[in-house]
Amino acid sequence: xxxxxxxxxxxxxxxxxxxxxxxxxxxxxxxxxxxxxxxxxxxxxxxxxxxxxxxxxxxxxxxxxxxxxxxxxxxxxxxxxxxxxxxxxxxxxxxxxxxxxxxxxxxxxxxxxxxxxx
Length: 118
Hints:
Blueprint lengths: L10 H4 L23 E3 L19 E3 L5 E11 L4 E9 L6 E6 L4 E3 L4 E3 L1
Parallel strand pairs: 2-7
Antiparallel strand pairs: 1-3, 2-3, 3-4, 4-5, 6-7
């Protein structure tokens, strides 16, 4: 158990050790009530940003290079374990702007400067 069926000698290609992963069903996790566990605030209307906290929507997303990468458009929350999971950011792309999810664990929010550093 835990070994690839056809080992290549490269654990990253074989998906073992630190590169291992679990095959999961291709559908979203649900809450006990049958709703999608993670959802943006535009859908999860029973959640909101506390009035004492800065609302990150509209804040600039700043990359490690110090340049603006995009703007936060929405906040994705976890309904089962209430908390922010992702910022949805609009970023420029060759075919026009697109939305990407930025994991909150990789960010620092600065409410005074209205920016999120990644």
